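Worked Example 4.2. Consider the chain below.
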Amino acid sequence: MRLITKYRPSHIKCPYFLSEDKAETMQRYRIYINEFNAKLSKLNKEVKQYNKRVAAFIAEHGLEAQAYSLASKFKKQKTGGIKNSNLSTKEYNKLVERLNTDSMLLLYKDTYLPLRQQHETTFEVILWLYSQQLRKLRKQLQLLSSDARVAFPKVHTNSYEMANFTKKGVPRVLYCQNTIFNHIKRLYKAGVFEQYESCGRKKPVNYFINEAIFVFRDKENTNTENQQVSQNIPQNLSLYSVDTRTLTKEKIKKVGNVDNHSRKAEVDSFADGKNRNSYKNSTKDEALKISNQNAGKLGARENFPKNELSEYLRGKIYYRPELLQALTEHHYDTYSYASEQMHRRLERESTDGVLSKEEFRELLLQLFVKIAAPIWKDKEVYYGSWHNALVQIDDEYLRNPNGSIPRKETLLYMFGLLIYRINRAKHFFRRKKEYQIHFPCIYFDNTRKRAREGGFAYTVEWLKQYQKYQEQRATRRQQKATKAGARRRVMTAEEKVRMKIKKYIKGEFTLPQVYHYIEHNRGIPNYFVSEVPRILNALTHKEFELYEC
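Applying the procedure from the previous section yields the following structure tokens:
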């Protein structure tokens, strides 16, 4: 079984997409997106200057109508069999540069758009669907001869089917059809998808995943279970794939060399690992029963069975060396806890889940580190600094005063306080650009409790101010509720007097009965009692005294 990476074969025999391939593909995706987002400001600045030249040329020669007509036709034309409007932004702008000349500038360049967390979620769903597509293709090829080969397939997705994808009647993707279509469009504009073909918004689309991102395996001989790697392919796979995991000798011995062992051994070697993955292929090619592998965000339609939610959250727990390596490579510089929509899942897990306290605490600690990572977005932080910071965080936070681990409901409450503190710190550093933040190993030193020491420990003072404000807010709310209750009682008393007056006008009440009601009900305010004669005068056009005999 050979690993195929950084190139796209013309034909395949027996494709496999294992759990480690999925993890490697997602890692390459994050690296690609981080590099893409880092270049946006410079690229868009160049696009803006170029479009200014085009706009000045069109205005100078009065070619507004010609420019509009040419742009409309240009987007409908095809280049290499692909519509120009379906090209990536980079390819589209290069084509515009070739067609525009100094004597005829009529076409504008497109602006580069950034990729966010929600686009990564959609890409992960597409990756899972593509793995199922390859699995079906492999089963068909295994029924044919061992020499059967087919052209490398494109990803085939339908935004309508994705939006209505369910498992046992439970929706698994909580984005609407238009949102999914727009996410796919943003991905191919950024170059994640290539050779994009579409026949309309409601019809399936076809495309390749960028060959620099997608990693999979192809078995040369479908009849041999333990196929050796061809000698023409380099044996050292690390030269062709980025491995961010720090593997110990024991783990290498347990997992073995991926080049030279059976597929069953591959699956079994990773099945016992802590970092389980929902895209793992089973030995029987059956869909693995896990939780909400395709959900973009938690919504009202999402319904997790208890054990499946716990398995889903357990899959979010990474090996610490792998997490630290990802932090060192700035994979979480744009991480957003709010966009991941984990809070409601954590709430349910804290009350109904089957994760142990230790696992739940480890998950919360890793989420906290990811939330803090964007603070060092523009700094070169070494692996050791992140390691020491995580050790200090593990020692100090989400523990009882005696060092033990509290129950899961208490852990989630303490985690909410940490989120408030780190978000306040992030807001502070965004406003104070001149402030030089310490490296993580220094910043999370719990002994730096003064403001001038610049440590995270000082943020507890902000938390105290916030809690004090919340208490005052509750007091004010109670005071307002008390005043509102008294006001409503006064208004009710006034309304009752007005009802008696209306009955007097209708002849159902006598005037002494009205005065008797006013005298014997103390809830009626004095200012309204003095207004009763005026009301009677206005309704009957007669003069009344308040206590006339």
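Residues 221-301 have pLDDT under 50 and may be disordered. Residues 395 and 401 are 11 Å apart (CA to CA). Compare this with Example 4.1 before moving on.
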